Amino acid sequence: MKSLYKGLVICALLGFASCTEDIVIDLEKGDPMIGVEASFSNELKCHEAILSYTADFYNKDDIRMVKGATVYVTDGIDTVFYYEDLEREGYYVTEPVAGKKNTLYRLCVDVPESDGEIVHLFSESLLPDNVEVIDSIVIKPYNGVEDTLPTVFFLDTIEWVYPYFQSLPDPEIIYMPNIYKNDTLLTDTLTQSMLIPVGGYAGYYINGPEMLAANKEIPVYYFMKRKLKEGDRIRLDLCSIPSDYISYYYTLIMSLGSNPMMGAPANVKTNIQPSDKAVGWFFTSSVVTAETVFKDQYKKQ
User: Fold this and answer.
1) Rounded to an integer, what distance in angstroms lies between the CA atom of residue 40 and that of residue 220?
2) What pTM did the predictor assign?
3) Can you give the C-alpha Rg of the chain in angstroms?
4) Which helix (H) or strand (E) covers residue 189, if one does?
C-alpha cells in the first residue's frame, strides 16, 4: 500500500511538472539610461563613483560600463575630481580627500556619447552631522544567556552587535552601520546593510538605561555563534546619511530579484538629474568608527 501511495505521489508531481512552461512578458523598451552610484564622505580616503548603462530586463550580456566620463564634486569653493580607474572599467576614484560635515556637495557627471554629444548629469547632497564618538560595542545574545527564539529557528546561538553612543537630537538623521570582521567588510551590498531611523528616540543614549526602560534595544548586526572565534576583531563604521536616502534604499530592496511578478510597480527613485537620462543615487555620509575584540563570555575556562 505504501508503494502504491508513493507511486501516486510521484505521478502527481510529474504531472504538475509537465504543465509548467516559461512565461515571457512583453516589456516596454526604451533607450539606455546612465546608472550612477556615487558617494562622498568625511573620511580621508579615495571616494568612488560607478557609471554604467541600463539594459533590458531579459538582457543576458555583460553590463556595459561608462568610459571617458568627467566626474567631480564641488561645494562651490573646492572641486574634487574622480579619475577613471584603468583597471576597473566604469569605476572612478578620487585622490585621498575628506569632505566636511554640514556642507552641500554637488556631483557633476559629463558622459560623451557616440554622436559627439555630451550628457550632463548632476545631483546634490548635504553631508550630514554625526555623533562625535561610539563609546563602546558589546557583542551578546539577544536575550542574554538563553537566546531561545533564534536557537529554535537557526539551531545556533546568535551573537548580536550593540553600539552605545549619544544620538543626535535631529530625528531626521538616519544611521547606516557597516560591519567589518578582521578587516573584511561584511555589509558590502545593500541587501546585507540596514538603516536605523532613530525617530522618536533621537537624542537618547542608544542602548542606554532610557531605551532599556522602554524595552527598546537596537542591534546593528548579528553573527551565528559558530562564525565567531575568540579574538575576532569587529569594527563598526556608523554612517550618518541624508534622510531622503531611506526611500531609495527601500524601493531598491523591494525591486531586487529576477521575478517580474514581484517587486515595486514603479521605477526606483533617483536623485540624479535629469531623471529621464539617469538612474541611481549620489549620497554623502559622515562616519565615526569603533572596534572591539570578541570574547566568548560563556566559553568554559
Assistant:
1) 22
2) 0.78
3) 24
4) none
